[in-house]
Amino acid sequence: MQPDKTCVEDSCNATIEKKAFGRQRKIEETFGVYRRLAIAQTTNHEIAQVCQDGGAATALLFVAMEKGIIDAALITGTHPEKPFYPVLKMATKPAEILDAAGSKYTCSQNPITLAAEAKKQGKSKVAFVGMPCQILAFRRLQMVNPPRLDFVRYSLGLMCSGCFSYELITEFIQKKVGIDLRSIVKINIKQRLLITTNAGVTPIPLSEINQYKQKGCLYCRDFSSELADISVGGIGLDGWSFTVVRSEKGEELFVNAEKAGFLRTKPVGLNEGALKLLIKLSQKKNRLE
User: Fold this and answer.
1) Which residue among 16, 132, 200, 256 has its CA within the 20 to 30 Å range from the CA of 173?
2) Pseudo-torsion of CA 8, 13, 14, 18, nearest 10°?
Protein backbone atom coordinates (compact mmCIF):
# COMPACT_ATOMS: atom_id res chain seq x y z
CA MET A 1 0.00 0.00 0.00
CA GLN A 2 1.33 3.40 -0.98
CA PRO A 3 1.43 6.13 1.73
CA ASP A 4 -1.17 8.87 1.40
CA LYS A 5 0.52 11.81 -0.37
CA THR A 6 -1.28 14.37 1.79
CA CYS A 7 -0.14 12.67 5.00
CA VAL A 8 3.46 12.56 3.77
CA GLU A 9 3.30 16.25 2.86
CA ASP A 10 1.79 17.19 6.23
CA SER A 11 4.49 15.21 8.05
CA CYS A 12 7.22 16.95 6.04
CA ASN A 13 5.74 20.38 6.72
CA ALA A 14 5.47 19.61 10.43
CA THR A 15 9.20 18.78 10.48
CA ILE A 16 9.97 22.03 8.66
CA GLU A 17 7.79 24.00 11.09
CA LYS A 18 9.67 22.62 14.08
CA LYS A 19 13.00 23.59 12.55
CA ALA A 20 11.93 27.02 11.29
CA PHE A 21 9.62 28.11 14.12
CA GLY A 22 10.57 25.90 17.03
CA ARG A 23 7.18 24.23 17.15
CA GLN A 24 4.46 22.65 15.08
CA ARG A 25 1.28 24.52 14.35
CA LYS A 26 -1.67 24.29 16.69
CA ILE A 27 -5.00 22.93 15.45
CA GLU A 28 -6.58 26.40 15.54
CA GLU A 29 -3.78 27.94 13.46
CA THR A 30 -5.58 27.52 10.15
CA PHE A 31 -3.03 29.59 8.26
CA GLY A 32 0.07 28.23 9.98
CA VAL A 33 2.34 29.06 12.90
CA TYR A 34 2.51 32.73 13.88
CA ARG A 35 3.89 34.95 16.63
CA ARG A 36 2.13 38.17 15.66
CA LEU A 37 -0.54 39.44 13.30
CA ALA A 38 -0.61 43.05 12.15
CA ILE A 39 -1.98 45.31 9.46
CA ALA A 40 0.95 47.30 8.12
CA GLN A 41 1.63 50.20 5.78
CA THR A 42 4.86 51.77 4.63
CA THR A 43 5.56 55.35 5.69
CA ASN A 44 8.11 55.83 2.91
CA HIS A 45 6.73 57.97 0.08
CA GLU A 46 8.89 56.35 -2.61
CA ILE A 47 7.72 52.87 -1.67
CA ALA A 48 4.09 53.98 -1.39
CA GLN A 49 4.21 55.24 -4.99
CA VAL A 50 5.10 51.85 -6.45
CA CYS A 51 3.98 49.17 -3.96
CA GLN A 52 1.13 46.72 -4.48
CA ASP A 53 -0.92 47.35 -1.34
CA GLY A 54 0.64 48.53 1.92
CA GLY A 55 4.22 48.06 0.77
CA ALA A 56 5.17 45.95 3.80
CA ALA A 57 7.41 43.47 1.95
CA THR A 58 9.26 46.22 0.10
CA ALA A 59 9.67 48.27 3.28
CA LEU A 60 11.03 45.29 5.23
CA LEU A 61 13.69 44.57 2.60
CA PHE A 62 14.48 48.26 2.05
CA VAL A 63 15.17 49.06 5.70
CA ALA A 64 16.99 45.76 6.24
CA MET A 65 19.42 46.63 3.46
CA GLU A 66 19.83 50.22 4.61
CA LYS A 67 20.72 49.02 8.11
CA GLY A 68 23.06 46.26 6.90
CA ILE A 69 20.82 43.47 8.24
CA ILE A 70 20.95 41.96 4.74
CA ASP A 71 23.47 42.43 1.97
CA ALA A 72 21.32 41.04 -0.85
CA ALA A 73 17.69 40.34 -1.67
CA LEU A 74 16.60 37.67 -4.14
CA ILE A 75 13.46 39.07 -5.71
CA THR A 76 11.34 39.12 -8.86
CA GLY A 77 11.43 42.22 -11.00
CA THR A 78 9.91 43.03 -14.39
CA HIS A 79 11.37 42.57 -17.87
CA PRO A 80 12.33 45.98 -19.34
CA GLU A 81 10.66 45.23 -22.68
CA LYS A 82 7.82 42.86 -21.73
CA PRO A 83 5.25 44.53 -19.44
CA PHE A 84 4.62 42.57 -16.21
CA TYR A 85 6.84 39.70 -17.35
CA PRO A 86 8.68 38.43 -14.23
CA VAL A 87 12.48 38.20 -14.15
CA LEU A 88 14.75 37.17 -11.30
CA LYS A 89 16.92 39.84 -9.70
CA MET A 90 19.54 39.98 -6.99
CA ALA A 91 19.21 43.40 -5.40
CA THR A 92 22.22 44.78 -3.55
CA LYS A 93 20.97 48.35 -3.20
CA PRO A 94 17.72 49.74 -1.75
CA ALA A 95 16.93 51.39 -5.09
CA GLU A 96 16.96 47.97 -6.80
CA ILE A 97 14.46 46.67 -4.26
CA LEU A 98 12.25 49.66 -4.97
CA ASP A 99 12.45 49.02 -8.70
CA ALA A 100 11.03 45.51 -8.28
CA ALA A 101 8.05 46.48 -6.08
CA GLY A 102 4.57 45.29 -7.00
CA SER A 103 2.97 41.94 -7.81
CA LYS A 104 3.37 40.27 -11.20
CA TYR A 105 0.66 37.53 -10.96
CA THR A 106 2.43 35.36 -13.52
CA CYS A 107 4.77 32.47 -12.83
CA SER A 108 8.51 33.05 -12.47
CA GLN A 109 11.47 30.90 -11.52
CA ASN A 110 12.17 30.44 -7.85
CA PRO A 111 14.33 33.39 -6.66
CA ILE A 112 16.32 30.93 -4.57
CA THR A 113 17.93 29.74 -7.81
CA LEU A 114 20.03 32.91 -7.53
CA ALA A 115 21.44 31.70 -4.22
CA ALA A 116 24.54 30.21 -5.86
CA GLU A 117 25.30 33.55 -7.50
CA ALA A 118 24.78 35.38 -4.20
CA LYS A 119 27.20 33.04 -2.45
CA LYS A 120 29.69 33.38 -5.30
CA GLN A 121 29.64 37.14 -4.77
CA GLY A 122 30.33 36.69 -1.07
CA LYS A 123 26.87 37.60 0.18
CA SER A 124 26.35 36.23 3.68
CA LYS A 125 23.09 37.89 4.79
CA VAL A 126 20.47 37.21 2.15
CA ALA A 127 16.69 37.55 2.09
CA PHE A 128 14.32 36.38 -0.58
CA VAL A 129 10.70 36.92 -1.53
CA GLY A 130 8.65 34.08 -2.95
CA MET A 131 5.27 32.49 -3.47
CA PRO A 132 4.11 29.63 -1.18
CA CYS A 133 5.50 26.95 -3.52
CA GLN A 134 8.84 28.74 -3.73
CA ILE A 135 9.05 29.13 0.04
CA LEU A 136 8.36 25.40 0.39
CA ALA A 137 11.19 24.59 -2.03
CA PHE A 138 13.56 26.77 -0.02
CA ARG A 139 12.62 25.15 3.29
CA ARG A 140 13.03 21.66 1.87
CA LEU A 141 16.48 22.57 0.58
CA GLN A 142 17.31 23.79 4.08
CA MET A 143 16.29 20.42 5.45
CA VAL A 144 18.32 18.45 2.92
CA ASN A 145 21.59 20.34 3.20
CA PRO A 146 21.47 23.34 5.63
CA PRO A 147 25.14 24.42 5.22
CA ARG A 148 24.51 25.33 1.57
CA LEU A 149 21.75 27.81 2.48
CA ASP A 150 22.83 29.15 5.87
CA PHE A 151 23.55 32.54 4.27
CA VAL A 152 19.85 32.91 3.37
CA ARG A 153 18.66 34.53 6.60
CA TYR A 154 15.08 35.62 5.84
CA SER A 155 12.19 34.47 3.69
CA LEU A 156 9.23 36.74 2.92
CA GLY A 157 6.21 34.89 1.55
CA LEU A 158 3.42 36.35 -0.56
CA MET A 159 -0.16 35.15 -0.19
CA CYS A 160 -1.33 33.47 -3.37
CA SER A 161 -4.45 31.87 -4.84
CA GLY A 162 -2.60 30.86 -7.99
CA CYS A 163 -0.36 32.26 -10.74
CA PHE A 164 -1.45 32.84 -14.31
CA SER A 165 0.23 31.83 -17.54
CA TYR A 166 1.86 35.01 -18.87
CA GLU A 167 1.03 34.21 -22.49
CA LEU A 168 -2.63 33.33 -21.84
CA ILE A 169 -3.50 36.14 -19.40
CA THR A 170 -1.80 38.85 -21.48
CA GLU A 171 -3.52 37.59 -24.63
CA PHE A 172 -6.84 37.78 -22.79
CA ILE A 173 -6.16 41.33 -21.57
CA GLN A 174 -5.10 42.58 -24.98
CA LYS A 175 -7.47 40.76 -27.31
CA LYS A 176 -10.61 40.19 -25.25
CA VAL A 177 -10.52 43.19 -22.92
CA GLY A 178 -8.82 45.47 -25.44
CA ILE A 179 -6.16 46.96 -23.18
CA ASP A 180 -2.62 47.57 -24.40
CA LEU A 181 -0.18 46.10 -21.85
CA ARG A 182 2.06 49.17 -22.17
CA SER A 183 -0.77 51.40 -20.94
CA ILE A 184 -1.26 49.46 -17.69
CA VAL A 185 -0.15 51.23 -14.54
CA LYS A 186 -1.06 48.49 -12.08
CA ILE A 187 -2.73 45.09 -11.82
CA ASN A 188 -4.36 43.93 -8.61
CA ILE A 189 -6.80 41.29 -7.42
CA LYS A 190 -9.51 42.28 -4.95
CA GLN A 191 -12.28 39.71 -5.51
CA ARG A 192 -11.90 40.74 -9.15
CA LEU A 193 -8.95 41.40 -11.45
CA LEU A 194 -8.44 45.17 -11.44
CA ILE A 195 -6.51 46.66 -14.33
CA THR A 196 -5.53 50.29 -13.81
CA THR A 197 -4.58 52.56 -16.70
CA ASN A 198 -4.49 56.35 -16.95
CA ALA A 199 -8.06 56.10 -18.23
CA GLY A 200 -9.31 54.41 -15.04
CA VAL A 201 -9.86 50.95 -13.57
CA THR A 202 -11.27 48.00 -15.53
CA PRO A 203 -12.70 45.24 -13.29
CA ILE A 204 -12.79 41.67 -14.58
CA PRO A 205 -14.59 38.79 -12.79
CA LEU A 206 -12.20 36.08 -11.63
CA SER A 207 -14.49 33.50 -13.21
CA GLU A 208 -13.33 34.78 -16.61
CA ILE A 209 -9.63 34.28 -15.94
CA ASN A 210 -9.37 31.28 -13.60
CA GLN A 211 -8.89 29.07 -16.67
CA TYR A 212 -5.55 30.79 -17.30
CA LYS A 213 -3.98 29.71 -14.02
CA GLN A 214 -0.98 27.40 -14.04
CA LYS A 215 -2.14 23.79 -13.76
CA GLY A 216 0.23 23.10 -10.87
CA CYS A 217 -1.59 25.71 -8.77
CA LEU A 218 -4.59 23.37 -8.63
CA TYR A 219 -2.60 21.05 -6.35
CA CYS A 220 -1.20 23.71 -4.00
CA ARG A 221 -2.61 23.64 -0.45
CA ASP A 222 -0.87 26.76 0.86
CA PHE A 223 -2.49 30.18 0.48
CA SER A 224 -0.52 32.29 2.95
CA SER A 225 3.09 31.08 2.54
CA GLU A 226 2.85 29.16 5.80
CA LEU A 227 6.56 28.34 5.98
CA ALA A 228 7.93 31.88 5.49
CA ASP A 229 9.46 33.98 8.26
CA ILE A 230 6.90 36.67 7.43
CA SER A 231 3.87 36.37 5.15
CA VAL A 232 2.32 39.38 3.43
CA GLY A 233 -0.89 39.95 1.44
CA GLY A 234 -3.39 42.67 0.68
CA ILE A 235 -6.46 40.53 1.41
CA GLY A 236 -9.59 42.58 1.95
CA LEU A 237 -7.53 45.74 2.52
CA ASP A 238 -7.06 48.96 0.59
CA GLY A 239 -3.59 50.47 0.86
CA TRP A 240 -2.53 48.18 3.72
CA SER A 241 -0.78 44.80 4.01
CA PHE A 242 -1.94 41.95 6.21
CA THR A 243 1.23 40.56 7.80
CA VAL A 244 1.71 37.22 9.54
CA VAL A 245 4.96 37.24 11.52
CA ARG A 246 5.89 33.59 12.01
CA SER A 247 9.48 33.17 13.20
CA GLU A 248 11.59 34.82 15.89
CA LYS A 249 13.98 36.31 13.37
CA GLY A 250 11.03 37.44 11.28
CA GLU A 251 9.69 39.29 14.30
CA GLU A 252 13.07 40.96 14.83
CA LEU A 253 13.08 42.11 11.21
CA PHE A 254 9.53 43.44 11.50
CA VAL A 255 10.25 45.31 14.75
CA ASN A 256 13.37 46.85 13.20
CA ALA A 257 11.26 48.25 10.36
CA GLU A 258 8.78 49.68 12.88
CA LYS A 259 11.50 51.26 15.01
CA ALA A 260 13.14 52.74 11.93
CA GLY A 261 9.84 54.42 11.09
CA PHE A 262 9.40 52.56 7.80
CA LEU A 263 6.20 50.82 8.87
CA ARG A 264 3.09 51.97 10.67
CA THR A 265 0.89 49.22 12.07
CA LYS A 266 -2.53 48.72 13.57
CA PRO A 267 -4.08 45.70 15.31
CA VAL A 268 -5.82 43.09 13.18
CA GLY A 269 -8.84 43.51 15.46
CA LEU A 270 -9.55 46.84 13.77
CA ASN A 271 -10.29 44.96 10.56
CA GLU A 272 -11.67 41.54 11.44
CA GLY A 273 -12.96 41.12 7.89
CA ALA A 274 -9.40 40.69 6.63
CA LEU A 275 -8.67 38.00 9.21
CA LYS A 276 -11.86 36.14 8.36
CA LEU A 277 -10.94 36.29 4.68
CA LEU A 278 -7.46 34.92 5.41
CA ILE A 279 -9.00 32.00 7.31
CA LYS A 280 -11.54 31.35 4.55
CA LEU A 281 -8.98 31.41 1.73
CA SER A 282 -6.57 29.23 3.73
CA GLN A 283 -9.29 26.68 4.40
CA LYS A 284 -10.34 26.70 0.76
CA LYS A 285 -6.78 26.19 -0.49
CA ASN A 286 -6.18 23.45 2.07
CA ARG A 287 -9.40 21.67 1.05
CA LEU A 288 -10.97 22.27 4.46
CA GLU A 289 -14.18 23.87 3.28
Assistant:
1) 132
2) 150
CA distance 88 to 108: 8
- CATH number for the region 35-163+213-285 comes to 3.40.640
Residue 56 has pLDDT above 50, yes or no: yes
**Residue 235 backbone phi and psi in degrees, to 5:** -55, 120
Q: Do residues 38 and 106 touch, judged by C-beta distance below 8 A?
A: no
pLDDT in tens, 258-274: 999 999 999 998 888 99
Could you give the angle at the alpha carbon of 69 between the alpha carbons of 17 and 48, nearest 5°?
A: 90
- Rounded to whole angstroms, the Cα distance separating 276 from 112 reads 31
Closest CA to 283 of 238, 200, 231, 222: 222
How far apart (Å, rounded) are the C-alpha atoms in residues 69 and 265? Answer: 21
